[in-house]
Amino acid sequence: MTRAADSSYRLSIQFMVRFVALSRNSVCLLSSLLALSLFLLCVLNQLLAYYIGLLSSRFFVALVSEDASAFKRVLGEAMFLIGAISLVIAMSDWVQGMLHIHWRTNLTNHVHSVYFKRSNFYHVNNLFDKADQTPSPELDNPDQRMCRDIDYLTEAVSKVFPILIISPLTIAYYTWRVYQVTGLKGPLAAFVIFLFGAFANVFLATPVIKWTANTERMEGNFRYLHMNIRSNCESVALLKGSEFEHQSASKRLMAVVYAQTKLVISKFFVQLFRGLYDYFGSIQSNIVIAIPIFAGSFADLSPAELSGLISAYSFKSIYLVYCFSQLVDSAVSVSDIAAMTHRVSELTEQLALMEEANGTSLRSVSSSVTGADSQGSSEGILLEIRSSNIVCPKSGELLLRKLDLSVKRGDRLLITGPSGVGKSSLFRLISGLWQSSEFQCYSIQTDRIYVVPQNPYICDGNLSQQISYPSTSVRDLDLAVLEKLRIDHLMDRLDQNDLSREISPGEAQRVSIARVVAQEPELVLLDEVTSCVDEKMEQVMYELLQERVHTFVSIGHRTSLERYHNCRLHFNADRTYLYSRMDVNESI
Known about the structure:
This protein has helices spanning 3-8, 13-24, 29-65, 68-115, 120-124, 142-182, 185-231, 233-238, 242-294, 303-329, 331-379, 423-431, 463-468, 479-484, 505-519, 535-548, 584-587, and strands at 381-391, 398-408, 412-416, 441-443, 449-452, 523-527, 552-555, 567-571, 577-581. By secondary structure, it is an alpha/beta fold. Strands 5-6-7-3-8-9 form a six-stranded mixed β-sheet, with helices on both faces. Strands 2-1-4 form a three-stranded antiparallel β-sheet, with helices on both faces.
């Protein structure tokens, strides 16, 4: 985390603005009804607590007066009130839990709607600082921010919400009741001490907010390391990398422990002040009650009546102090809310910037796409690149100079060249994952172009869903295609919703070709899609592509691929290229 990020993690105007913005995306009709229900239950709880608080004085008077009938009557009322307030508390907890669930659902759905729009999820996970080309620390672990941080935030808000909505009412009421007994001095003393506590908490909460956010960041890094090991456990085991990974995990753990230690230390001072404030509050209530007694305001009352009066008004003054103490005691929860608000807001603000940039980018290229589409329909050009440089957006490195390329219907283009010269980068630019002012691409609509990445993606689903991906509607399986690709045995796992751990890299590449065949796009971009299969299976895969797709662009290193293509684009290490048509007989 940078110093700039540290300095912004505090209780400030920025926090309030961000919190209001997130709240707007969390509220719906049902959550509003739940919030209203919780408010009414809190009011009812306070009324019942008030009457229960007065019971002790009535018990005291009945016992001192030795009035058995009065004692039984008060006892009956007490049993009823205890049952009623227990039911109200249970209902309040239930509504509070449901409010947390609905707030989390609404906010997460809002973030998802932008995160999964276009390719925002790709860009937000590939943010880099331009200065040193390291992952941007201000937006670490977007997955954790959407999962844990939103849940943590909405749960903390749901717990503090009842205190914040009911405290103004209870404070106003008990201030008036205490004022009736003690005059202005009693409520004024309580307000002065509360303001002191509030300002002290703002000061003490700043390091708590900072280290709460920092701890979450370190936890996310620690979890990501273990997730990466789980995803690549076979490679790590074959490389005998257990000792290296052990040391890496220990370093991440120490970073978590350091942040947690700082958080515990910062919370110590908050808890120390909280204890001092709470216990001083109990003394303060006695001082408030003593004011009218020593002033002789109740000199005409009998000892029993004075005892009952003291008990009743002690409850009111103590409850006033308790209402203030609840607000002060919420400092830790408010600190957690502030930390999570800043972390979640950083994600939503970055996504909003991406949406704005995407909108500008789409408007700027819309005419080019439309023009290319009409040109493609008349001249058969599906993809055209005009005098464009291939530049890596992360480093600004020039990979290829002044590329001119046209792909027509029926072209089967093979792109070759050494590693690291920009072959896969060209696909990223064509698909729009990378944006560059030096790259001018005119193509058919992107939904008619299908890209098969170098690392085949196996989604969360069975074989039918794998073949249908990315469509959410399941396609019928072509058994003949599955048999040719030798993945028909996966049919037996149709009920298995997670094939990613069972499928081999070669099977994954064959599944990716089955997807292409099932969808029959107009143009396919293939990035080393046969690197994990033998030449015999490679022949089967490309013969299917020639039969079903007709036009495709392949990246590859094998000379055996030449027979399936009719033109070649070779990238040289000196950032130049060579385009040539291949002999028809050679490519058959």
